[in-house]
Design goal:
alpha/beta, 8 helices, binds NADP nicotinamide-adenine-dinucleotide phosphate
Amino acid sequence: MTSIELSFSGQVALVTGSGRGIGRVVALRLARAGADVIINYHRNQAPAEEVAAQVREMGRRALVVKANLSKVEDVDLLFDALAAEFDGLDIFISNAASGFNRPALQQKVSGWDWTLNVNARAFLFAAQRAAPLMEKRGGGHIVSISSPGSTRVMPDYIAVGASKAALESLTRYLAVELAPKNIVVNAVSPGLVLTDALKHFAVLGDPQVIERAVANTPAGRVVTPEDVAELVAFLCSPAAFMIRGQVIVIDGGFTLIMPR
Ligand SMILES: NC(=O)c1ccc[n+]([C@@H]2O[C@H](COP(=O)([O-])OP(=O)(O)OC[C@H]3O[C@@H](n4cnc5c(N)ncnc54)[C@H](OP(=O)(O)O)[C@@H]3O)[C@@H](O)[C@H]2O)c1
């Protein structure tokens, strides 16, 4: 795929959940464009350290921070570590997500709390910490990573779907409230992307999910992490200044087709 020419030279970017999957590729994309990167992980330290090593090979600074974003104290811990190392923040990508995939009638309070806290609550309280750090730099960019389950119904996805609906709503409110601080806030909603998250569906759910997605995608293939990273990077660039509080779908046209 083609890559647009962007420069984030001298900028500081935080990407949550950036040891693996989409977050990893977003962190590396921002570093390639010149940003220093804060890499956050929860359970898997080794891949996060690998991302940091790659960022440093590009001549950028990298800071790896373990933080379980289901806890507000860990959100604070992440931002304390960031603020101790860097003089402000320019880009915040709220990418980390988790969830209990169960039918509605089997959902438990603990699963609901976990899913909503990681996927939605963490975004609000992270944005509270990000805003003053961005003000120090004269403004900034925030992008949340949502999913089509926010508006559409997917099997066993009720808690994650609700959390993503909350995330998108938070994105709109933050876009308005942070605009006077010159902070641009948007969301990206990718279609099916081949990451570890998908193994869960392929193994436990429908093994044909990927084949069907390709067949039903007008663009002829599923979305890659690189596709998502390119869009995220664009939304963090000056060219996206007038895009505010939007949820940009990147799915190769998958959601355009009405099932027969
Ligand atoms: N893959 C898709 O098809 C798809 C489609 C639409 C939207 N999305 C969205 O894209 C984003 C990335 O998805 P992905 O497919 O790359 O996921 P993934 O491969 O499952 O990776 C999830 C990431 O989130 C981190 N994470 C999970 N729980 C956390 C917690 N409590 N605190 C901090 N970090 C935590 C993980 O860190 P550890 O490795 O340390 O556990 C990991 O880096 C998510 O917001 C997801 O909803 C994905």
